[in-house]
Amino acid sequence: MLVNIKINGHSYEFDVTKKDIVLNVLRNRLGLTGTKFGCGTGDCGACKILLDGEAVNSCTLPAWRCDGKEIVTIEGIGNVSNPHPIQEAFVEGGAIQCGFCTPGMIITAKALLDKNSNPTEEEIRESFKNNLCRCTGYVKIIDSVKKCSKES
């Protein structure tokens, strides 16, 4: 079946089967490898994308369900020459260790801050309940999100 998806501001048409997942479309067909394959079961959050503004796991999301939707990946948020403030805060705050979970964490932080520009620490922690990080202990990640809030 043909699906039309807007990804990072560009419109694409893909021929997909019922078994095709968004993560594979992004990585294998478009070369957008910033979205990571972690667990394949939706438990770790390394594969987070923004789907119509909501942070979702792309490793369990059938591509056909994204027909007519808009996706933003980590590549669509910022880049080396023009990083997003959340990306800058993560780097400056030392919220990056191995970096594997970082794209998913930044996607989750962006979704939260787009909805709530001044979240409490509890709200920040709650937003990361489906993002796993083995290296940082979350303290620097939470501090980086606080730094990006409107009231910082």
Can you put this structure into words, describing what you see?
This protein is an alpha+beta fold and 152 residues long. The protein is built from 5 helices and 5 strands. The protein has helices spanning 22-29, 85-92, 102-115, 121-127, 139-148, and strands spanning 2-7, 10-15, 48-51, 54-57, 70-72. Strands 2-1-5-3-4 form a 5-stranded mixed sheet, covered by helices on one side. The longest helix has 14 residues, at 102-115. The chain starts with a strand and ends with a helix. The mean pLDDT is 95.
Number of helices: 5
By CATH, the superfamily of the largest domain comes out as Beta-grasp domain
Average predicted local confidence, pLDDT? 95
**Which topology of the largest domain does CATH recognise?**
Ubiquitin-like (UB roll)
Named CATH architecture of the largest domain: Roll
Domains, number: 2
Helix content: 25-40%
Query: What is the CATH C-level name of the largest domain?
Result: Alpha Beta
Largest sheet: 5 strands, mixed
- Rg of Cα set: 15 Å
Q: How would you describe the shape?
A: globular
What oligomerization state is this entry in? single chain
Q: Strand order of the main beta sheet, please? A: 2-1-5-3-4
What is the straight-line distance between the termini?
A: 47 Å
